[in-house]
Design goal:
Blueprint: E1 2-7, E2 14-20, E3 23-32, E4 37-45, E5 51-57, E6 66-75, E7 78-87, E8 96-97, E9 103-105, E10 109-112, E11 123-129
Antiparallel strand pairs: 1-4, 2-3, 3-6, 4-5, 5-11, 6-10, 7-8, 7-11, 9-10
GO cellular component, one term: extracellular space
Protein name: MYDGF factor
Pfam family, one: UPF0556
Length: 135
C-alpha cells in the first residue's frame, strides 16, 4: 500500500505513519529550505508474512530540502536491512546511497548521525523480520 504525503520545510519536526496489520512505519524529520515536496511511503508484508518492508522516497528522484534530522521507525518487526540515499533512482539515474557514517541502523530505527549527516535525503528503505511463532 502506497500513500503520498508532503514533506514540509520550516524547521519543525513532522512525522508520517502507515500501518499494515500488526506492523507500522513512521518517518519523522525536520527540514529547511524551498517549498513542500510530495513524497511517498510504501508498506508491504511478504506473502509468508516473514518480512515487513517500508520505503520512503521522493518520486522525482532528488529532494532539494535541507534535512536537519530524520528517523524511520518500524513497529512489530526488527530491522534486517536498511539503507538511506541522498538521491533516488529516476530515469537513467540510479540511487545514490549516503555514506555509511551518515546514518545509523538500530533494531527498529534508521536515523541520521549527528555531526556526520550531510543534510541530503531522498529515499529510505527498510526490510524487517517479523516475529514468527516457533513451530
Amino acid at each position: 500500500s502506497t500513500a503520498e504525503f508532503d514533506v514540509r520545510p520550516g524547521g519543525e519536526v513532522h512525522s508520517f505513519s502507515r500501518s499494515l496489520g500488526d506492523y507500522g512505519c513512521t518517518f519523522t524529520y525536520s527540514a529547511q529550505g524551498g517549498t513542500n515536496e510530495q513524497w511517498q511511503m510504501n508498506v508491504a508484508v511478504s506473502e509468508d508474512s516473514g518480512l515487513f518492508s517500508c520505503s520512503i522516497w521522493r518520486p522525482q528522484g532528488k529532494s532539494y530540502l535541507f534535512f536537519t534530522q530524520f528517523k524511520a521507525e518500524v513497529k512489530g518487526a526488527k530491522i534486517e536491512y536498511a539503507m538511506a540515499y541522498s538521491q533516488a533512482a529516476v530515469g537513467a539515474q540510479s540511487d545514490i546511497p549516503l555514506k555509511q557514517e551518515e546514518f545509523e541502523v538500530a533494531e527498529t530505527t534508521v536515523s541520521h548521525r549527528e555531526g556526520k549527516f550531510r543534510f541530503e535525503l531522498s529515499k529510505l528503505m527498510i526490510v524487517a523480520k517479523t516475529p514468527r511463532d516457533e513451530l
